[in-house]
Amino acid sequence: MRNRAELYQLKHAARAWYFTDQRKAITHAGIEYLPIRGLQRTAIEDESIDKCDTEVTFPQMHLLNAEGEDLAAIFAGKIFYGGVTITILELYQGETLVLHEGRVTQPKYDEDADTLTLVCETGESYLNRNILTRKFQYSCPNSIYDRWCGLKFEDWAFDITVTAISGLNVTFTVNPTQVLDAEGNPMFDEEGQPVMETKSYPDQWLDLGLMLKGGVHTLITTSSENSFTLYRQHVGLAVGDVFPVVPGCDQSKKMCDEKFNNWARYAGHQFIPNSNPIYTQLIK
Length: 284
Hints:
It is built from four helices and 17 strands. The protein has helices at residues 123-127, 153-156, 253-258, 277-282; strands at residues 5-12, 15-20, 26-28, 31-35, 40-41, 54-58, 85-92, 95-110, 115-122, 158-166, 169-174, 177-178, 196-197, 210-213, 216-223, 227-230, 242-246.
């Protein structure tokens, strides 16, 4: 290949989009990159960590991968905050050069020009930011199922089947699971068939919980016994889908103890004084 060609890899969880700025599709390392005429980017500034961003502009808003999934749909309802990564490669005379590797921080739409522009930054600039890590607060600062919380997603998950969708409201049925004995081993009947049961869960059990589909987590705000409401649209969600869901936590010590029996990892501060002692005691 004598002419320079740029390849664009965009990934979100288990889904991926592969595009090139050339007129014809290009196969590289076993991956086919679909042509997008008019695909362009701004110059990549690399003189400092804080100036290594670039903007990639697509000349159309609907961008489909080989599976027919629309890239633009990922950015609906801010679902992209789960993390869209981007890698830009340059091919020239059989050599491959990585021009940019990072993540998408912002989509920008121009309806008049019918374009979608993605603002992209590198991992270095992201790590160079000053961010708040831990807070001295009454409620627990841990996010449920993270390494500080300690609870395992798979231990609390159960599969459901979607039966109806209305906006952000999802109706479901709980899928049967195999019965476990007192030691946690799966049970079988006399004929060697697994003993199955369909568990029931109370109202609000999934409040502030999560659903996982296609490698993407979406927050559940409220729930009843057989339905829940999502915080935002989950792209590709359809009736008949089967995926796991997990209960949530309101970060209170009461729920951490009574619902999850995880009080030993509770990281909130229950005895913060109502008034600041620096002003009420030390100054006097």
